[in-house]
Amino acid sequence: MFSSERPILAIDFDGTIVENNYPSIGKPMLFAFETLKKLQKKGFILILWTYRSDERLEEAVGFCRKHGLEFYAVNKSYPEEEYADNISRKINADIFIDDRNIGGFPGWGEIYRELIGKDKELEELKNKKKGFFESIFKQL
Description:
By secondary structure, this protein is an alpha/beta fold. Helix content is 37%, strand content 9%. It has one domain: 3-Layer(aba) Sandwich (Rossmann fold), CATH 3.40.50.1000. Strands 3-2-1-4 form a four-stranded parallel beta sheet, with helices on one face.
């Protein structure tokens, strides 16, 4: 499914990480920062891929940093990449997360489920509850 062991995600800012209020910065989207930080812990490489540039881009990067999120690269495939006319502006990523996808932005919960599947912790909790209830009904 992915091109490497550590999948690369290119993530838009306005309308994806924050509500679209360009050129201002909107409120964080529900679970955006929590989900992105959890994906990083699971080995995903995050690239900020946004229309913003110059001062507006620095504001977005600073906003993410303030919320505990650092990106591997910003508007580049890798941190050392230098823009040149002979380099494609398309980011080398496995998955692009953007509010302008076909069907719109599904929300961070759905994105997490799509990328990770059922979280082991959640599955274990469900099994513990199931086991508890089964033991009660066996006693009756």
